[in-house]
Structures are given as C-alpha cells and as structure tokens.
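Technical annex, item 7. During the second reporting period the consortium partners agreed on a shared format for inverse folding records so that results from different sites could be compared directly. Each record opens with the tokenized structure and is followed by the designed sequence. A conforming record, contributed by the partner at site C, is shown below for reference.
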C-alpha cells in the first residue's frame, strides 16, 4: 500500500514538473512571437509607447483581464485603431503570446471575474460629456478617437473599443490608472483629478453614447 502510494506521488510530481515545463516553453515561444508581431507597437517588454501601442505589462491592466479576453482581442483586433486582427497566427501561437503577456504580472487575471461582473454605469451623459471635455480629451481626443487626435491616450470613445470592454473595466481604469503610463488614477487626493464615484459614472455613461461614432 505504502509503496504504491509513494509511486503515485512520484508520478503526480513528475506530471506537475512536466506541466510547468510546458508552460515555460509556451511562454518562451510567446515572447519570441511577441517580439516579431507586437513589439513594434507595444514596445520592449510590452511597456507601451504613446502613439504606437498601449502598455500591456502593468498590473492594473493585467489583473482585470482574463486569458480569454486577451485571446479575443488578439484575434479580432480593435476596429478603428491600428491594433490589427491576428487570427491568422493560429490558436496555439495566440495562446503562447497570451501566456507570455500574462507572465508579466503575478496578478494576471486575478480580478477579471469580479470586474466583469460589476454593474453597468447609470450616470448622467450630459455631465459626463463636460467632464470628458475638461479632463480626458487632452490625451484621448475630443471625442475619444485616441492617437488619431494627436494625444497620448488610446481610442476609448470608439465602437471598436467599447464593444470589447465592460463598464467595470473602464471604471477600474479611471479609478486606479495604469502604473508606468501617463494614465494616472483619477481618484483620491493624489489623483490627477479627484473624481467622485458619481462623476466617474457620468463619464462612463457618456462614453457609452459612443462619442467618436
Ligand atoms: C500596428 C500597431 C500594433 C500592433 C502590431 C499590435 N498592436 Fe495591440 N494595440 C495597438 C493599439 C494602438 C492599441 C490600442 C487601441 C485603442 O486605441 O483602443 C492596442 C491594443 C491592444 C490590446 C488591448 C489592451 C489595451 O490597452 O487597449 C491588446 C491586448 C493588444 N493590443 C495586444 C497585442 C498583441 C499581443 C499584439 C501582437 C500579436 C499586438 N497587440 C500587435 C497597436 C498594435
Ligand atoms: C495625461 C493623459 C491622460 C489623461 C488626462 C487621461 N488619460 Fe486615459 N489613458 C492615457 C494613456 C496614455 C492610456 C494608455 C495607457 C497604456 O499605455 O496602457 C490611457 C488609457 C485609458 C483607458 C484604457 C484604454 C485601453 O485601451 O485599455 C481608459 C478607459 C481611459 N484611459 C480613460 C480615461 C478617462 C475617462 C479619462 C478622464 C477622466 C482619462 N483617461 C484621462 C492618458 C490619459
């Protein structure tokens, strides 16, 4: 009995080691693919550069998105921006890239479910429009067209972007910002502006009217 148990443990352990090995291999392959297919815009280490591509390496972003979401965005691209659809890379390669991107933060995916299940915003689009013009438009463009408008921020007022994200995603990003980018947090006394919860909801509700058309 004991000997069988020990043997079982050895088998389980060997299996775990080989799984971890396969994971590492996927991540390494993903990094190579990232360098060929994504680095030009998203930059070394996926750290991003205004006008080219967003940072995919910060923990605020990586913690609120799932592997499935990342896969989908890579497959479909983001309509109306330079983020290209890359379904042609194939399922296995896309999985490898996702595994590399997720390896950039130990928090990857940890809040994805919670954030996706947050309630939709119910604010005042009119007041959100004024707040957007005063606070967000300098970087994201007057109607949220992003880099096209010459600012440092990506497109957030376009249908292509809005179709891909939940209100929880937008809400969390406004409240927490993205470390190591120009997107600082808009909550608390240290924020770029200390927006109240209501003001934040107003801005999200306005964005949902798809200002960029
Ligand atoms: C030609 C430039 C370009 C290339 C190449 C490119 N991207 Fe992007 N990507 C962008 C831009 C620009 C955005 C922001 C879109 C917007 O304005 O909403 C983006 C957004 C994203 C997003 C959504 C996250 C966010 O912050 O909006 C993910 C995930 C992503 N890219 C992953 C990748 C991966 C992985 C590759 C390589 C397989 C890749 N991209 C290749 C330009 C590019
Ligand atoms: C100082 C410039 C600046 C201001 C002001 C600013 N942003 Fe941003 N924002 C950015 C940049 C740069 C990014 C992309 C960060 C990155 O590289 O990942 C971003 C990203 C975002 C994203 C995520 C986009 C994505 O592709 O995932 C949202 C949502 C957002 N900002 C909303 C807002 C809102 C709402 C406001 C106004 C309250 C605002 N931002 C004000 C610069 C700014």
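Designed sequence (site C submission):
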């Amino acid at each position: 009995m004991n000997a069988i148990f020990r043997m079982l443990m050895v088998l389980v352990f060997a299996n775990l080691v080989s799984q971890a090995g396969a994971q590492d291999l996927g991540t390494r392959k993903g990094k190579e693919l990232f360098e060929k297919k994504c680095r030009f815009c998203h930059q070394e280490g996926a750290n991003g550069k205004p006008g080219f591509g967003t940072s995919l390496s910060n923990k605020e972003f990586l913690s609120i998105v799932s592997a499935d979401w990342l896969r989908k965005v890579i497959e479909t691209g983001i309509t109306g921006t330079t983020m290209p659809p890359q379904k042609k890379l194939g399922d296995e390669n896309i999985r490898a890239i996702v595994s590399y991107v997720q390896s950039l933060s130990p928090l990857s995916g940890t809040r994805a479910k919670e954030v996706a299940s947050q309630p939709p915003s119910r604010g005042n689009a009119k007041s959100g429009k004024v707040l957007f013009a005063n606070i967000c438009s300098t970087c994201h463009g007057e109607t949220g067209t992003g880099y096209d408008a010459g600012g440092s921020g990506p497109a957030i007022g376009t249908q292509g972007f809005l179709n891909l994200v939940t209100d929880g995603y937008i809400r969390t990003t406004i409240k927490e910002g993205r470390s190591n980018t120009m997107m600082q947090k808009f909550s608390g006394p240290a924020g770029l502006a200390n927006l109240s919860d209501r003001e934040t909801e107003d801005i999200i509700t306005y964005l949902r009217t798809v200002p960029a058309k």
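The mean pLDDT is 94. Residues 27 and 100 are 4 Å apart (CA to CA). All partners now use this format for quarterly exchanges.
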